[in-house]
Description:
Strands 6-9-12-15-18-21-23-24 form an eight-stranded mixed β-sheet, with helices on one face. A six-stranded parallel β-sheet has the order 7-10-13-16-19-22, with no helix packed on it. It starts with a strand and ends with a strand. By secondary structure, the protein is mainly beta. β3 and β4 form a beta hairpin. The protein has two helices and 24 strands.
Amino acid sequence: MNKKILIAGANGHGKVAADIAELNGYKVIEFCDDDESIKECVGYPVIGKTDLISDYEGDVFIAIGNPVTRERFMKKRECVTLIHPNATVSKKAVIGSGCVLMAGAVVNSCAVIGEGSIVNTCASVDHDCVIGKYVHVSVGAHVAGTCTIGDRTWVGAGAIVNNNLSISNDCMIGSGTVVIDDINEPGTYVGVPAKKIK
């Protein structure tokens, strides 16, 4: 029987998810999106709106960047995890449901990646880290060993989180930011070293 998947979100993130799904052996790839003007995405059909998620007969992946929206959709049903064949994932790591690990991503020994999280292209999460739910470790970002990152936090492209640190839920860590101290309250942080701006 052909492996079948519905990807929610006919957008850039969805395009990459479709590539990874294809590399993982899915033969039928379909999209859903609430923008009814979108009829296809990278050659795959958009078959309807996101109300299809709950009853779809096949696997489902939520390819929506906004963590609050991703969380809301993932509560509708269990979602598959997509791992690019060129990602490096320790056998001692724990990867939650509905995650995506993109090309060149590295997840090292005893790291835990919470459900619905993204470890993007060439990003790394080192040993013993605990990454919360619906987190995005962006392209080229690096989280050093034994860090804890709270739910729905976004670690921007090229950002660095030094080892043995904790970051609160609901933070935005700007691109290129270097985190050298714990971040204990939600907000937006930028700079070298990281400073809260709002």
